[in-house]
Every structure is written in structure tokens, then in C-alpha cells.
Amino acid sequence: MNAPMSHSATIRLADLSDAGEVTRIEGFVADAGGSVFHRPLWLSAIERGTGNRAHGLLIERGGVIAGWLPLSAVSSPIFGKALVSSGFGVGGGVLVGRQDDAVRLCRAAEELAGRMSVGTVELRGADAPDDWEVIGGRHANFAADLAADDEAQLLAIPRKARAEVRKGLENDLQVSVGSGEDDRRAHFAAYSESVRNLGTPVFPRSLFDAVLDLFGEDADILTVRHGDTPVASVLSLYHRGTVMPFWGGGPFAARSLRANERMYYELMCHARRKGCTRFDFGRSKTASGPFSFKKNWGFEPEPLVYRSWSGGGVAARNIDPTDEGNSAKIEIWKKLPLPIANMIGPWIARGLG
């Protein structure tokens, strides 16, 4: 696809197999202040870790990038097909300097979806044509600046939540940070049990491995252990001075040990020492337990607005694990033995995107 546009602009598919092209796009994302989910590196990690192909649309003027839309082609025998921006992220969508370019990229995404026999385009961003569906009120993001030192960070946490953190600090827990095999094994053990307990299929470990391998120093794992047992672990991303704890959790034992509270506080301190100035607590569903947990830590919710398009009378896919229609499935999943959940969960989860 290489269609001439007005104002001497062209729109085309990016060649993500070309290292030079990828470098140009990475530079555009950095200059435009894009999110980690706009990076071609993220698309590559998703493709390597889940098999969902990476794509992207560029607008150029005079050979200079003026706009970018990263896309993952997510395919599932259960949930159907969709072009997602960005796959497995909580952000993404069009990255442009002009609103008319956002519309052009979205129209090009519609055309690309048609040629790929994909019925839906999902944007984890707000900019889209007026005739695209608006998805709002379901999720909020939580982010705040980091404090100047460890003690100030502790005091910045509201009193009740701070008391829980202090209990975690008093418990006999060990904290480690890394990205080696021991870190990865501990993270998958803690995280997979956590999501099974919530009734959600776990993502394949290959996805976590791909992110760690490709992002290098921009990703790591912080694990809290009780003796030799990992009781909380989180894989975090680092982008433009911000740390984002992205995949984290722990087994039921984490609750009495306050291991999750200890984990997030330790991550705040670690991130500041790493040079970060901001903590992005990530997305939570409105009125959920994680939503309340983050508010109790003093973070203010920032409502998220997403957009989607479905063509040819195709209904938008429903992948919300907390949707009422999925409640019975969730209760069944919670009761699965962990080895079985970890065996079949990745096959399901790689199609969620």
C-alpha cells in the first residue's frame, strides 16, 4: 500500500524487517513523546513472544515521518481476529502531529484490515474518526512522580497503605532485581499463580522472555521471596524516565506477608536509583480491587478512552475478563490445578492481545 495523499504526503506499510526503517520509527516515537507501546521494539517482542505478526502504518512528507500507527495482528480461534494498537499493551494508537493525519492513518487501518480479512481495529488511544466507537468509562490509569528519597517515598504513601508497607518491611522477606533465568522462573511462578487465582489465563512465558531479551536495561524483574519461595514478582518497563510495573502478582501467601506492598515500594526506590522520576502504576478496571488498591496508595485515576472500528457488520470482540458474560468461566478457571492452567492458559491468552 503506497497511496498518494494531499499536501505531498504518502501513507504506506512500514518495513519492520528493515533495521534502518525501524531505527527511523524509533527516533520518531522518541521525538514525538510516544509511549513504550508505540515502539517497534514492543511490536517485535509481541511477535516473538506470541506469534502475532507486527505491522505498522507510516505517513511521510518529503521522506520524513509525520505519523505512525503500530499494529499487532492478533488472531484467536476463540476471540477472532483484530488489528490492535498496541497488542498486549494498555496504550498505543496513532502518533501524529496533525489531527487530519490521525484520521488518515485510521482509514488506512480500515483498508488494511479489509485486505487481511480482519473485522476489527482496536486503538488503545483516543484519536480516531468520529464514526469509530468510543470506549470510555471502563478503565483508568494511575501515575505520579517519585519522591526524592526512600523515606520521602514511604511518607508519600497515605497512612493506611503506609502501615501495610511497614508491615512488609518488618517481615523476613528478601528482595532481588534482575533478568536472568532464576528471576524469570520466579516471576512466572508467582505471576501465573496470581492470575489463575483471579480466573485469568496466564500469558506465555515466551512473551516475558521476549520483552526482557529485546528491551535489555529497559526491562527487569523485581522479586520478593520468603525463604526460597517467590511470594511476589513484577516485570517492569522503563521508558522516558518512567517505570511501569506491568506484569506482577503473587500467590495467596503474599497477602499475610504484605509482599505485594513491599514489592511496589521497593520498585519505587529501585526505579528512582535507576534514574526514574515517575511511577506509572498502570491500568485498572473501574471499581475493581486493583483500582481501589492504587487509589489507597494516593494515586489519582485518569480515565482512559479507547476507540474501535468494525467493518461489514462484524461485532467487536469481547476480551474483557471481568465482563458479566465471562463470570462463570472465571469461577471455573480459579478452580483449575495450577499445572493445567499453566499448560492451556498461554494458548488462550496469546489470542487476547
TrEMBL record:
SUPFAM superfamilies found in the cross-reference section: Acyl-CoA N-acyltransferases (Nat)
Residue span(s) of domain BioF2-like acetyltransferase: 160-285
Pfam families named among the record's database cross-references: Acetyltransf_6
Domain of life: Bacteria
InterPro entries per UniProt: Acyl_CoA_acyltransferase, BioF2-like_GNAT_dom, PEP-CTERM_FemAB-rel, PG_Glycine_Bridge_Synth
PANTHER family reported in the protein's UniProt record: LIPID II:GLYCINE GLYCYLTRANSFERASE (PTHR36174)
Protein name: FemAB family PEP-CTERM system-associated protein
Species for this entry: Qipengyuania soli
